[in-house]
Amino acid sequence: MHFIRLANAAQMALPILFLVHCSTSQKKASLPAELVESTFRYTANDTDNCAGSQGICLSSDAVTRHLPAGAVSGKVSIDQNVVTNADYQKCVADLHCEKNAYSAKLPKALAADSAPALGLNFEAAMRYCAWAGRRMPTVAELKAGLTDPAFARTDYREWSNDWALSPGASCTQKDRNLCEPANPMGICSGVFPCNASLKLKQTVAPQSAEVTPLAHTTKDKLAFRCASDFAPSTAAPPWMLKSPPAPLADPAPLSASERALLHNLEATDTLNKPICKEKFTSPAHCKDPVTYFTPNESQNYQFAPYIRNLGGGYAGVAADANYSYIAAARSRFVWLFDFDVNINALHRIIRAMVLESPTVPEFLQKFEKKNNKSALEILEKYYKDRDDLDFIQQVYRNNFASLSKHYKASAAPDKKQGEFGWLRFADNYRYIRLLYTQDRITIVPGDMLKDKSMRSIGKSARALGVPIRVYYPSNAEEFWNYTYNDSNYKKNILSLPFDEASITFRSVHEYPWHPTYRKGFKGFWHYVVHGAYNYQKRLLLPHYDYMDYFKMHRVVSKTRADFSTIEIPSAIPKGILEQDR
């Protein structure tokens, strides 16, 4: 990473306008052009316009002239001033930033609220910018800023989001693309840490624009400011917590053409992945031998405020937790998919039992042993024309007891969960039953790492004119590199019609996501809510190839150590929620 020497007294860091143009380079062309062009079909506010920015608007040309040949930047907004002690203390008070221990060693004048926040290592600076809804600027952006009269200089070098070779190190062939970057976000697209080479260090740049490599742990007298290329701002709090969407009326029945577009997907994946030798793992090349018929994300009610009444389309994997999310979001069109045939059979079982059960108690009875015979007859009634009827019935026989226990527990009152849960509240169950009655839920085989089902879901949603507002991958994304199998997963995500209001949410293992600076939390899962539209923009950059690379952009909940948000807009375009209501 880098810093820059800038001149004279520190001032308060002004907030910036996030410009939607994520800096990209010619490397983006590795993704199909038609996919990139269609990704942002539902954009209502994607613009290069810097008007109204309280920071400094850097033109594409101003930044590009400082980049390696072949790299092209979009417009970027950079803070006019460096971050001050007062600014940083707000992040500390919000429990997202660690206390700056170095400040106690500074002279009184440099410890003043209006003085630059000095002595923070790169990770602390990066964490602050994420909390503020921004990111660290690159050397090219800082150099471009130096040419603007409004850019407030200081006497201190500043952190930058770039890497350089350590002194005396040589660039191996393996790392040549990192040592000679051609993308405007810096080596590894600004991903921290850049694990491609231990020889790489973060860097700083003095006012003369000379680049100086330093370890990211350096606690020297270094200042920093933030920048952004996202619009609207992703500063906390997220838009839906400030202005929750209004409740949605029930949808009208589908037309015949809508039903065909929803259910008749262009193509679906063949589910032929071999079974893994070890349990409880699901790498890219094989399937976990264990089927998770019941969810184990016990704190998933934390997702509810972020998806409530989003409407639109829903796409998700795994078992019945989906129905709680669908009910909270009041989704209009639903695509349930999974690469485990047992889960697909489970959803067909749930569908049949829901359609035959006007109330939750009646649904629960369908899984009691005394009702096995009638339950199997229900499955035959609904699926007698399917080749896999026997398999669906066998899944029921093998699992009705554990499912009964799980569904009864899910229906029990729980003060912690509020009005969350598809079986806990009668109106949530009623809504799921309405969707099944109106044939608004489709169940399809789908492997995230293949190239048919998810892209067909995207085409189906586009044909229906509905954005995917909620996408739930469970914890699958942490098991593999996004570039696996010709980057199919990355392309699949880019094929989904997200808009600024869209959300993806997931669970990840506690390590490394629980914050090390917030001691004492021992929960197994960490829960993450991600702005889906901005997720796509990051995926258009090279090197965003692992789920953990997004950790650098997360903001940890003030009240919980097991919950983070990533780049959720602080505002959405007016009227966007009404487009599909």
TrEMBL record:
Among Pfam families, the record links this protein to: DUF7790, FGE-sulfatase
The Sulfatase-modifying factor enzyme-like domain covers which part of the protein?
Answer: 77-155
Q: Where is the DUF7790 domain?
A: 292-566
- Protein name as annotated: Sulphatase-modifying factor protein
